[in-house]
């Protein structure tokens, strides 16, 4: 599939002397926009009332978007690698913005299926392409610090929700004066439709800016003072390359798939029910020691740790290595989940600190995985490989809520009316998942030489031919 | 930022370029301001966790 010439990879090859520090803000411009996907709870109640639908019917919009994210990242990953980040960012912007416009039409005309199609399907495709669009470019610009580079971009995905949540509240208040953002007031459907239109315009401008300034390094480019041979000295790190089609035939790919799936599922277990969960853990009869405002503060704190973990842990992985950092995410995560299940209800500070660190590991798992893939499979088609790996996120997006909701259903109560003990089985299931992930990570070994591409580094123009090998 | 320059051998016959510092500052500001807004709002919300 050809792209217009102004979007083509050949048009954005950086000339000598280009400053690579222009690339992270280009990546952030995209990720800060698509990170809005984590802020859908802001207007969830409004949509339930507007469509007179169940919470599940509205919640499924987010699930569709996450499933489409994984599928589109997997399907279009090779296309993204071949055509470069500008084409990918522009395409992502087109889908993401169209998703909001169609979704807005669906809300305005009270047709829920249009919201599924718009935000869920079309927007979800924009999410997937946008998520992977800057990753391989950043890895190529920062061969000396890939964890830092991908951490910066994927931190933006966490940051996007931090921006979209308060911004959406303020915009809905602007469009509906009766809604003031406090508990008990619900924005009108019309204000949500207008919010979608406004976000579409803002995101179109922002993402276009990212597409405009992004560049790819010329073949053979390396930062001054960087010696690629030093990279090879680290365990598991290769200077060889593996194509996306070959990567999925290796056990390493599927071991990492399991690692990501387990880490994400465990994190979603807390994120999914964060506000009611903290209230339930400190419930005494009908009332909870934790107020609704404090629970909202807890959700905010988790967002900060989710975003911070993406940057801090991924950057740390540049120093201690990818495999060891996942041993921390999963191994310490096991201990923290056990503490949460057994001691979590004994003191608020224990619950809050434990959950916050778990969520920082959840974020770190996302942002470190592209660098882990680079270490194992090289830079050749790391974007496409990353895209295929993100199907683990889609699967976790289904499994995580199913586990936690399934367990809570057995307790025959609604979140917000339960007690700590009702959550315990779900938390121990997460411990089991983390153990599986820990073992999978332990089994990761260097990729066998038979999967490597020929030793001369392939140029982008030969990627298409190699990709179908 | 000094480590961003290309190695001459890899750059072929292309003319060198210079990325204006102002452009880099503008790009970082453009993404930094909304992020700072989001961080501020979230810290404000999260502070209720410690304020009782």
What is the compact description of this entry?
Chain A is mostly helical. Chain A has 18 helices and two strands.
Detailed description of the structure:
The complex is a heterodimer of chains A (469) and B (52). With 469 residues, chain A is mainly α. Chain A has two domains: 5-223, MFS general substrate transporter like domains (Growth Hormone, Chain: A, Up-down Bundle); 228-454, MFS general substrate transporter like domains (Growth Hormone, Chain: A, Up-down Bundle), CATH 1.20.1250. Helices cover 71% and strands 1% of the residues of chain A. Chain A has helices spanning 23-34, 44-51, 55-108, 112-132, 135-141, 146-175, 189-213, 228-232, 244-247, 251-271, 274-281, 292-320, 322-343, 348-377, 382-389, 391-410, 420-442, 460-467; strands at 283-284, 287-288. Chain A has a two-stranded antiparallel sheet with strand order 1-2. Mean pLDDT of chain A is 89; it is low at 459-469. Chain B is mainly α. The termini of chain B are far apart. Chain A binds chain B through residues 14-22, 25-26, 28-29, 32, 144, 156, 159, 161-167, 206, 209, 213, 217-226, 293-294, 296-301, 303-304, 352, and chain B through 1-12, 14-19, 23-24, 27-28, 30-31, 34-35, 37-39, 41-43, 45-52.
């Amino acid at each position: 599939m050809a792209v217009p010439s102004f979007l083509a990879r050949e048009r954005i090859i950086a000339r000598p002397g280009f400053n690579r520090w222009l690339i992270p803000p280009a990546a952030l411009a995209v990720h800060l926009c698509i990170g809005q996907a984590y802020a859908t709870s802001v207007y969830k109640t409004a949509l339930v009332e507007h469509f007179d639908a169940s919470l599940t019917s509205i919640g499924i919009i987010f699930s569709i978007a996450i499933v489409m994210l994984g599928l589109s990242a997997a399907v279009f990953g090779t296309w993204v690698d071949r055509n470069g980040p500008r084409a990918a960012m522009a395409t992502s912007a087109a889908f993401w913005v169209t998703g909001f416009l169609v979704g807005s039409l669906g809300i305005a005309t009270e047709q829920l299926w249009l919201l599924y199609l718009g935000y869920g399907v079309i927007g979800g495709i924009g999410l997937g392409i946008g998520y992977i669009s800057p990753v391989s470019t950043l890895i190529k610009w920062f061969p000396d610090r890939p964890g830092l580079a991908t951490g910066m971009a994927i931190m933006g995905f966490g940051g996007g929700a931090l921006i979209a949540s308060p911004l959406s509240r303020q915009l809905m208040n602007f469009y509906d004066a009766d809604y003031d953002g406090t508990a008990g007031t619900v924005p009108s459907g019309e204000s949500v439709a207008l919010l979608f239109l406004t976000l579409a315009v803002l995101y179109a401008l922002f993402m276009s800016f990212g597409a405009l300034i992004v560049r790819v390094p010329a073949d053979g480019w390396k930062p001054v003072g960087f010696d690629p041979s030093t990279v090879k000295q680290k365990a598991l790190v290769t200077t060889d390359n593996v194509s996306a089609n070959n990567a999925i035939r290796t056990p390493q790919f599927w071991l990492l798939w399991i690692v990501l799936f387990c880490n994400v599922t465990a994190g979603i277990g807390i994120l999914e029910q964060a506000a009611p969960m903290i209230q339930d853990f400190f419930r005494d009869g009908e009332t909870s020691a934790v107020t609704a405002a404090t629970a909202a503060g807890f959700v905010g704190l988790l967002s900060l740790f989710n975003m911070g973990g993406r940057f801090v842990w991924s950057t740390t992985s540049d120093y201690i290595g990818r495999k060891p950092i996942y041993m921390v995410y999963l191994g310490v995560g096991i201990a923290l989940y056990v503490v949460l299940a057994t001691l979590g209800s004994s003191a608020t500070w224990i619950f809050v600190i434990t959950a916050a660190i778990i969520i920082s590991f959840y974020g770190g798992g996302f942002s470190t995985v592209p660098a882990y893939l680079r270490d194992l499979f090289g830079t050749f088609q790391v974007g496409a490989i990353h895209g295929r790996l993100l199907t683990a996120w889609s699967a976790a997006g289904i499994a995580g809520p199913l586990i936690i909701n399934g367990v809570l259903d057995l307790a025959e109560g609604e979140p917000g009316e339960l007690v700590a003990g009702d959550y315990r089985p779900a938390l121990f299931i997460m411990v089991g998942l983390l153990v599986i992930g820990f073992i999978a990570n332990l089994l990761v070994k260097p990729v066998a030489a038979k999967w490597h591409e020929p030793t001369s580094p392939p140029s982008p123009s030969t990627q298409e031919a190699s990709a179908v090998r | 930022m000094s480590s961003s320059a290309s190695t001459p051998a890899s750059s072929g016959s292309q003319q060198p370029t210079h990325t204006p510092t102002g452009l880099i500052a503008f790009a970082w500001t453009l993404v930094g301001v909304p992020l700072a807004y989001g961080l501020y709002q979230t810290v404000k919300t999260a502070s209720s966790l410690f304020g009782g």
